[in-house]
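Need the bound structure for 2'-deoxyguanosine-5'-triphosphate, inputs here:
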Amino acid sequence: MLNKELANAFNLMGDLLEIQGANRFRINSFRRTGRTLKDLIEDVAVLVEEDRLLEVPGIGKGTAGKIEEFIEVGRIAELDELLGKMPDGLPALLDIPGMGPKKVAAVWKELDIEELGDLKEAIEDGRLAELAGFGEQSVKKIGEGIRFMETSGERVPYGEALPLAEALAEEVGAIDGVKRVAIAGSLRRGRETVGDIDLLCIASDGAAVVRSFVALGRVASVLASGDTKGSVTVPLGSAREMQVDLRVVPEESFGAALQYFSGSKEHNVRLREMASKQGYKLNEWGLFKNDKQVAGRTEEEIYAKLGLPAIPVELREDRGEFECDAAFIETLITMADIRGDLHMHTVASDGKCTLEQLAEAAKGLAYEYINITDHSKSSAIANGLSIERMEQQIETVRAFDKTFKGLKVLVGCECDILSNGDLDYPDDLLAECDIVVASIHSAMGQAKEVITRRTIKAIENPHVHIIGHPTSRLLNKRPATAIDVPEIVKAAVETGTALEVNSAWKRLDLNDRHVRHAIDAGAMLSINTDSHDTPQLQQMRYGVATARRGWATADRVINTMSLKQLLAWKERMQ
Ligand code: DGT
Ligand code: CA
Ligand code: CA
Ligand code: ZN
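Answer from helper R.:
Posting the output first, comments after.
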């Protein structure tokens, strides 16, 4: 139904007329039409088709003409005309909570504000607060409105939300009377982005725990505070906030609540159906037979009673997980399987830490090996290494490795795949490296066939072992390139080249669905952090969660191999 869109168009026309100072009568007439359309029960397109539009009270000939125009060609000439009379960025200011047509008109006429950026400047330098009709309170509200608009709707990347959730879980755990805390929701499932943070805890006095929760130091605003549930927002970085829900449950229901609130909703719907087919009732309080609780203290006992293995939470998306057997689940990749990290940068290119610092930090993670992969010469902004510098780097790392104890330091590079698919270094130089990661860092706008062909050419080079961040996407910042993932997976399977699951929280590339495809097709993966500083080595768990969501088993991930196996795997490729 176009009713709502049409109503919005008429309301917008009313607002635009008001910004331009048209007479009240015309403005109100558009708004009345907007309301009429919004309240209309019948589909306006059907009314037009049956020639009954004029029967609607309040719709005259002129209005009917505009409605017909919208339905026929998708636009209204008068609306376009109104938009043409003001700066392109101005109407968007109407969407800011706290800004109506009068205020938009005032900032435009008095302060020459033409778009959001101008408005933000006027707030910062105090000009807005001096404008008649604004004042400190209203400016504050508009500032908050902008912040809300800029952050709401945007889901938070997994790796950004998880450390915050863990810190909050710890604070909740320290509240009097709290026995146990757990992270639930999409965050527990390891989804690449999350809408909010869901926490669960065991306590007997729910109201008291919720009161302490909403009073935690980092809470920015309280959305709800009840006997068993509290909802707040907390700052995320300097300019954003995210919602956190806490639910308090009794001990005997903890597993059932954890299962329920971990979702996904689709998985839960299926599970509940399976329960009811077997004569049970399943809800967030437990698993019941004839009103008697038969399970619910732990998740495992619920799944077991229903004849299912303990389905790992990352798999709970109703993507076939109910058919998994326990033996398969045992083979899924875990953090404990990871023996090394094959993609990281030092100060030689754009990293922030030295070779020594990376090696020390990796040793602290009990890894068996790491692979140093600074950028190649064409990545000029990343201070990529010239051929001479790369030759030097190989010597430096090999010499360092000889003296360093407790961890093998391999030397590789992150070699640019040039726009025509050639590699940035000659083959003989690549041949001197242990493990070569080849990645795209330029010409990301290429057409599907071009960028796919380009990548396949790199995959086919026997000196390339891993394709780094294959789709180049940055969460919430840059979409994936047009690359045909199934095609590159096919080439990777044929050549034995591994595809990276880049674990940097900004990337997660390949994503979970790509991993699932790659695994089904028989490809090998490499889960790497692409660290540019030592703390980033800890991001491995984001990549592992992504790989688990894609049903990756440990035997398909090259950095679960021992050093010896890894080097033997590499030899087989040539
Ligand atoms: P998000 O927050 O959008 O990233 O995704 P979730 O999965 O964390 O969803 P959220 O926070 O709305 O709810 C947390 C969990 O609670 C969800 O995964 C499953 C459960 N849940 C919420 N609403 C419903 C519902 O209407 N039906 C069922 N079966 N489960 C629900
Ligand atoms: Ca959630
Ligand atoms: Ca929630
Ligand atoms: Zn890199």
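Comments: The longest strand covers residues 240-249. Residues 215 and 222 are 9 Å apart (CA to CA).
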